[in-house]
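Worked Example 4.2. Read the sequence first, then its structure tokens.
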Amino acid sequence: MDKVEDYIFSFEGDEQEVLLYFHELLISFPAVTSKLRFKIPFYYQNTWVCYLNPVKPNKIAICFLRGYEMSNEQGLLVSKGRKQVLSAEFASVDEIPKKLMNEIINEALFLDETVPYKPKSR
């Protein structure tokens, strides 16, 4: 097991299942790698694409670092006052809209692959 999997298995129940679901989905893309940064799992292709963050109460947020550049056609991503990062939170695997999240992840990976990253000006 790697450090990201060790991190995931340090959780129990629904939190572990949500973390594991997104981890397995993200690393199923051949160009995506995972690494613990700031004590949470980050997923990298050309740049950092997203990260998984435990939030209270007992939810996992999947956060997209270039969320402000994404279409959010699905309406699932929220900014929570952040300028760049958009996220969606889930308490269980059953509440994840899998098809829509696959679309969002594919869009984030496509954006990372095709549009050079430019930090948003403050």
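Now turn to a second chain, presented in exactly the same format:
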Amino acid sequence: MPEDHRCAFPNARSAALREADLVLVLGTRLNYVFGHGKPPRFAKNAKLIRIDIDPGEIAATPQAQLGICADVRVALGQLRAAAGGLAGNRYAAWMQRLAGIEAEKAPAAEAALATDQMPIHPLRLCREVRDFLPRDAILCVDGQEILNYGRQSIPTHTPGHRLNSGPFGIMGVGLPFGLGAKAAKPDKLVLVLHGDGSFGLNGMELDTAVRHNLPVLTVISLNGGWTADPKREKPGRDLGYTRFDKMAEALGCHGEFVERPEDIRPALDRAAAAVARGQPALVNVVTDFQARAQTVRFSASST
């Protein structure tokens, strides 16, 4: 389901999960992200139905009242056909309430994304990426702050077109994921949004991109260090502001260096033009080290 669908409520998801009396768990796990399927994330009396193609996954979900072993796409098609127009307007009031929460949060969220502060706030970078991406682009996000900010602010519209580190938070997967995505779908724009720390783990794969003709567009949120150590007191946490764009150019990529928010979109456009010519590109954007992604304040967890 695209995130701009009338039944999608990304900024009201906590309220939706907490109030639902029946929850379909489709091809995913009830891990810590979903509070392991228990209150307070879900209602105490909520019924959980897990649909998964792997019976072992269903067996590992004792909190589900019903398990259905099936391909999710096939099962949803069958459920939709069986349901027909049965629901009617039964949930109209609830849907309207969730839409109200969504609308209430939208102005503040959009205002945060529009900041012109210097150094550039990661949310402004995310807004520029969001507005730049085609609906069918493939987005890979990897890092810490930029991963969390990206989750909050950059929507997905096409199944399988968003890749990130998953519940284990593994860093360094962004560029390798992007190369794999480009090899699988060469006709799609693949954008990898990296933190500078996570990029350092596999950044030399830009050489692979050049040698194997995999023109991905990499964008780096260059905040100069590992933000898990905000005071930079631990050795190795202050990374400096490396000119990854120069490194990319040395490897045969197109490089861009950005310090002002109004320059982000033109740099993205020039990088995309290089990608369209078959050349990998990297946009290196200096961002604010002090910025911390706080989902509760910015997005939906407080609904």
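Notes for the reader: Residues 296-303 have pLDDT under 50 and may be disordered. The chain has two domains: 10-97, 114-295.
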